[in-house]
C-alpha cells in the first residue's frame, strides 16, 4: 500500500487521539538503562483491558552526500503504536503493533512487535508463546550471547533504541528450580535474521568492488535457510545468583545473523553457527562490574576458507557507576579474537580486506538527568583502536509532560579506512529528531 508521505502524515496526525490513561512501566529484562522501555507494560490494576501507545513523528537527514544513494533523508516517518494486554483466567495475552508511514522507503508499513500468550503450567514453569522480543546477556549495546535478531537499520536511522531488538515468533520456557539455578529454553521454529544493512537506506562496503554499493545494483539479497524444523534456532540460558553475583551459562544453535558466507556460485547466505558462553555481574568498587565471553563455531573447521566466517572467541568486560547524583558512567572493553588467522592469510589471496586477528572496541556511556528527570542528556561512543574507526551517538530527550516528549540526536560515523565496520558508514552520518505523544 503506497500513499503520498505528506498525505499519510496528515491522515495519522489528524486521527482523534485516544484518551486512555497509562504509561509504559519498567522492562522485564535488566539492561541497567531505560533505553528499552518501549517494550514494557503498565501492570497497574484497571477496570478492564485498555489500549495504550503513542503517535510519533521522526525526521532525520545525512550530514553529507552518499555517492551511491540519491536519498538525503535517513528517517521520515509518522508512527502509531498500539498496546494492549488482557488476562483470561490464568492466561495473559499481550499485543503490541506498529503502523507507520515511511518517507524513505515510500509506503505504509505495519508490524507486530508482540502477539504473545503467557501462562504457567506449574508453580515453577512459565511459558511465553508467540511473537516477542527477547534479550539476555550483560553488554550495553554489545551482544555476545544474545543472538536474538537485531534491527540495525532502525538503530542507525535514529529510531528509539528499543527498536534495535527485532521481534520473532518464538516459544520460551522458563523453569525456576528454587535451588539457586534457573533455566530458560528458547525455540524459534523459523530462522530470524538481523535486519542488516542491505543497500536500501544505507550503502555498505563490498569487497568485490572495493567500494560502497547500494540498491538497486548493490541490494544485498542473500539466500535464506529453508523454512523447516531442522533450520530452527535453539537457545538456552542457565542462570542464578550467588553471594550477590549474577551468573549465567549460554548455548545457541542456529545461523549467523548476518549473511557473511558466500557459496561457490557467488551467492551470499547465512552459514550455520554454534555458540557457547558465560557471564558474571556484581558489585565492584562502588559500582557494577560485569564480564562475558562467547565461543562461536561455524562451518569452516580449518579456518582456511575465505568465503566462510572463521571461529571466534569474544570477550567483554564492563563497569558502570554513578559519578554524582544524576550522572552515570559506563565503560566497556570488547575483543574479537579470530581463530585460525594464519590459515585464512594463507588462502585469501593476500586480500587487502583481511580482518585483523584481534579486533578491539571501547565504549563509553555518559547519562545526565536534570529538571526532575524531565531532561536527559546522553552520550554513547564506540571506538576501535584496531580498526581505527568510531561511531558516536549523542542525544537529548525532554519530557514536556506525561504525554509529550522530544528527542534529538545523531549517528556519527568515521574511520581511516572505508572497509572497516564503522568506517564504511561515514556517509551515513545523520542528525534526527522525534516528537512523541503517548496515550
Summary, kept brief:
This protein has one domain (5-438): Porin (Beta Barrel). Helix content is 5%, strand content 49%. The protein has 3 helices and 22 strands.
What's the layout of helices and strands?
Layout: H1 5-13, E1 52-62, E2 73-88, E3 91-102, E4 107-122, E5 125-132, H2 152-157, E6 168-176, E7 182-188, E8 204-206, E9 211-213, E10 233-242, E11 245-255, E12 261-262, E13 268-269, E14 272-284, E15 287-297, E16 312-324, E17 327-338, H3 341-347, E18 358-370, E19 375-384, E20 389-399, E21 404-415, E22 430-438
What can you see in these coordinates?
With 439 residues, the protein is mainly β. It has a single domain (5-438), classed as Porin (Beta Barrel), CATH 2.40.160. It has three helices and 22 strands. The chain has an 18-stranded antiparallel β-barrel. Strands 8-9 form a two-stranded antiparallel sheet. Strands 12-13 form a two-stranded antiparallel ribbon. The radius of gyration is 22 Å and the shape is globular.
Task: Offer a few descriptive terms.
single chain, about 450 residues, mainly beta, Porin, two-stranded antiparallel ribbon, 3 helices, 22 strands, about 5% helix, disordered N terminus
Measure the end-to-end span. Answer: 27 Å
- The secondary-structure element order is HEEEEEHEEEEEEEEEEEEHEEEEE
**What is the name of the CATH topology?**
Porin
Beta-strand proportion: over 45%
Secondary structure class reads: mainly beta
**Outline:** globular
Mean pLDDT: 89
Number of helices: 3
- How would you name the CATH homologous superfamily? Porin
Please name the CATH architecture.
Answer: Beta Barrel
Uncertain ranges: 1-47
Helical proportion, percent range: under 10%
The biggest beta sheet, please?
A: 18 strands, antiparallel, barrel
Cα-based radius of gyration, to the nearest Å: 22 Å
